[in-house]
Structure prediction request, 279 residues.
Amino acid sequence: MDLKIIDLTDTHAKFVVSGTRPDMANALRRTLMVGVPKMAIETVEFHLGPIRDEDGKECESVSPLFDEMIAHRLGLVPVPTDPDLYVFKDKCVCDGEGCPNCTIMYSLNKKGPAEVYSGDLEPLGGKELRVKDELIPIVKLGPKQALLIYASAELGTAERHIKWQGTSGTAYRYYPTVTIDVSKCDLCEECVKACPRHVLGSKDKKIVAVNLEECILCTSCVKACPRDAITTSGDDTKFIFEFETDGSLTARDTLRKALEVLEQRFDDFRENLGQLVEG
Ligand SMILES: [Zn+2]
Prediction:
C-alpha cells in the first residue's frame, strides 16, 4: 500500500492510496471516522445557588437552557488532543480517578447579562489546553443569571458518542482513468469544453488529462465526443481520500493514528484467530 499526499493542512487532508482493495480503503475510511480517539468534555458539574461577585452583586445559578443542554453543547466543543500523551481513563494508572494523563479540567465562570462562548472555558493547566474554536455559542445569560461550571474532558472514540468524532466529510473515490483513442480523435476539443472540472487539455496536438485527480468520472467528455474516442473508468486498486478535522487533532496526526489503530486491530484479529486454530 502506497500513500501520496496531495494536500495537507492542520484541518484538511487529501491523499492517494494505491496498491490496495476497496474493502481496505473502506476500513481506513471507517477508522478515520470512528476509530481515532480524541478528548471531549464528558462530565460537567454545575454550581447551585446564589453566586456573589467581587462587588457584592448577587446572581442566581440559572440560565435559559436546561443544564443537560449546556452539558451537551460543551461536549461537542473541540478539545485539543495530544495523540501520544493521553490514555483512556479506565486504562490509566490513576484507576479512573482522573490525572493529567487522562483528564483535562476546565472551569467556566460567567455572569449575565452576557453571551457564553466555548472560549470562556478556562483550562486548569497550560495555554495549549484552551479549546480550539473559541466562538462557539453556548448560552445567552440574562440579567442576574450566572453560570459556574467545572467540566472534565476525557479520551473516547466515536463508537461510543459522536462528540469523540474528530473528522468530518471523510470519503474516498476510485482513482479515475481517462483513455483517449488517438486513431479516432480529430482534436475537435468538444470533450475539453464539456468537462466541468477542467481535467482535459490539448498538448502537442493531442488531447490529454492535464488534471486527472480532479476527474469525478461524470462521463461528460464521453457523451460530448462525436467520434466515441474517449472511455473513462475507476481504478479499484487506487483511491483518492479526503477528510477534514475539527481541530482537536491535526489532519496528519489523525491519519497516522488511524493507520496505527487499523494495524493494531488486524494484529488482535490475527492473534485471536491463531488461538482459535490452536485451541
Ligand atoms: Zn489518569
Observations:
- The two ends are 33 Å apart (CA to CA).
- Residues 38-164 form a domain with the RNA Polymerase Alpha Subunit; Chain A, domain 2 fold (CATH 2.170.120.12).
- The chain has a mean pLDDT of 92.
